[in-house]
Design a protein that fits this description.
alpha+beta, three-stranded antiparallel β-sheet, 11 strands, binds protoporphyrin IX containing FE
């Protein structure tokens, strides 16, 4: 009997049809469930297959559109990414406040793609593990420890100043600042001197972080690539992603190994305690420390969160000061009055640079380094306007849109640092570049100290202008970057 003629084969089309119909039915049910959940939440009209992906984009036009939707669809609106995939986007301070006041886990759909890179560190972990590790790590960011870092930030900035003195002209600022923040990050948190600012080719770690950030965004917008099997086995990007993660992990492991050896050999109190010491020696109430895997996850998480978001914040602040020359001049006048031209910068000086700080705050309002953050609700959520977001809903808070809310800010798209001067107290519900609530940024004081030191040191030495031939175009690739680089003209003063 021929195998092909076997009666079993006759059933194959039926079996296939069964699975196709089952899938279609599941999609139909899920779509109905989502539509019911969104009944009180009007939003922009989606296409059947593409949903709202043509409207909710990561480029500047897309980010601004999100802010505009805040008027049309107050509070929150649905955004579809397929026939049965959707989430709510929160664009209002009141909604953002209730969402961020809980400890709901991160939305796996948006963040899971980062897992192979930063593992289950503080950013992505949840529940008891997150709670324990957040407590273990908080002492690493105490003011007494941060004060010691001012000199490190100044020294790293000095390396950049020397580089720019030799080449003063038009520079792609984002790249230089990323190297600077990575350099000081590695020193402050891990006591590791990499010389990465002066290496001729791009540091493999920086290259790795750039690559994975871009590859994740490319992956997000291609639904088929969400399947690991397809992504890693059949796409070039999947292979590149694996290689980049490997390079990053290798680097982190090298740093951890070096420190473990040092801790064994050195006398207690021989140097200032840093973040890696805390990770390696921290014990919970049961006397348990972190596993090697946990330590590497935290190292990767802090390396990523610590250098990339700070680099974005500093770069956009320099951009805004280059665009608004009067503000730049006023900052420089203040710096020269408080610190002078050559004095070594101190922790106390930083608190006196009020106008410069106002410019930083205003820049973070208009160009938040982390434009969007997402959660998956573990509970039904009551909104201030009486509507309820059901449990299990994915929700993205657009910090970008919230910080441009026209009901809170006059001329919300204008750069006006005076919003933050003369002791004006602005609620953290309206200005939240570090997020709010229990899962806010653990490194915010560290970051702000570094941003202040770098801006202050650079303005003491250089005048910044926009490069009219190379316009910056903001784009959200996990963090806020510029699509075509961020070029500024640098002249010594
Ligand atoms: C100006 C620079 C920075 C900005 C704008 C920023 C912003 C943020 C935001 C918005 C979040 C919330 C993310 C979410 O909910 O998904 C966050 C979380 C976090 N940030 Fe930062 N960050 C900065 C610098 C830093 C630095 C320097 C570090 C470490 C040294 C750091 C470590 C973290 C960690 C570990 C989390 C997760 C906290 C948790 O879930 O408990 N960040 N950051």
């Amino acid at each position: 009997m021929s195998f092909v003629a076997s009666p079993l084969w006759n059933y194959i089309p039926l079996v296939l049809l069964y699975f196709v119909l089952k899938k279609v039915f599941e999609v139909f049910l899920k779509r109905r469930r989502l539509q019911a959940a969104f009944k009180d939440f009007p939003g922009p009209k989606p296409e059947f297959f593409g949903g709202n992906t043509h409207q909710i984009t990561g480029d500047y036009a897309g980010l601004l559109r999100m802010a505009d939707y805040a008027h049309e669809y107050p509070g929150a609106f649905p955004a579809w990414t397929g026939p049965a995939e959707a989430q709510l986007i929160s664009v209002h301070p009141g909604t953002a406040k209730v969402v961020l006041s809980g400890t709901d886990p991160k939305d796996e759909f948006s963040y899971a793609l980062m897992r192979p890179w930063i593992g289950d560190g503080l950013l992505l972990s949840k529940g008891k593990k997150w709670d324990r590790n957040r407590r273990l790590m908080t002492p690493a960011f105490h003011a007494d420890i941060l004060k010691n870092y001012v000199i490190v930030f100044s020294r790293s900035t000095k390396v950049l100043i020397d580089k720019w003195r030799k080449s003063a002209g038009s520079e792609e600022v984002f790249h230089h600042i990323s190297l600077l923040t990575l350099d000081s990050m590695m020193q402050c948190l891990f006591g590791y001197h990499s010389n990465c600012q002066n290496e001729k080719t791009r540091h493999p770690y920086i290259q790795g972080v750039y690559d994975v950030s871009e590859l994740i965004v490319k992956r997000i917008i291609k639904p088929l690539h969400h399947y690991d099997f397809i992504y890693y086995n059949f796409t070039e990007n999947g292979k590149k992603f694996k290689q980049a993660c490997h390079a990053i992990h290798e680097h982190s492991e090298k740093i951890i190994k070096k420190r473990k050896q040092l801790l064994k050999s050195e006398a207690k109190g021989a140097r200032n305690v840093d973040f890696l010491d805390i990770l390696l020696t921290a014990k919970d109430n049961d006397g348990d420390g972190m596993t090697d895997q946990e330590i590497r996850d935290e190292v990767d998480t802090f390396m990523f969160e610590g250098h990339d978001s700070t680099a974005s914040t500093i770069s956009w602040c320099l951009y805004n000061l280059a665009k608004h020359q009067a503000c730049q001049d006023r900052c420089r006048e203040e710096i020269l009055k408080v610190v002078g031209k050559t004095k070594i910068l101190s922790w106390d000086d930083l608190t006196k640079l009020e106008y410069m700080y106002a410019c930083i705050q205003e820049s973070m309002r208009l160009f938040p380094a982390v434009p969007n953050i997402s959660r998956c609700l573990e509970r039904d959520l009551d909104l201030p306007d009486g509507r309820v977001i059901p449990k299990d809903m994915r929700i993205t808070v657009s910090l970008f849109a919230v910080q441009r809310d026209p009901e809170v800010w006059d001329n919300p798209n204008e750069f006006d640092p005076d919003r933050f001067t003369n002791g004006s107290k602005i609620s953290s519900v309206y200005h939240l570049p570090f997020s709010i609530g229990p899962r806010n940024c653990i490194g915010q004081h560290f970051a702000l100290t570094q941003v202040k030191v770098v801006i202050c040191e650079l303005l003491r030495h250089f005048k910044l202008d926009l490069d009219p031939e190379r316009k910056a175009e903001p784009e959200c690739i996990l963090i806020l970057r510029s699509k075509n680089g961020l070029y500024l003209k640098i002249k010594p003063v």
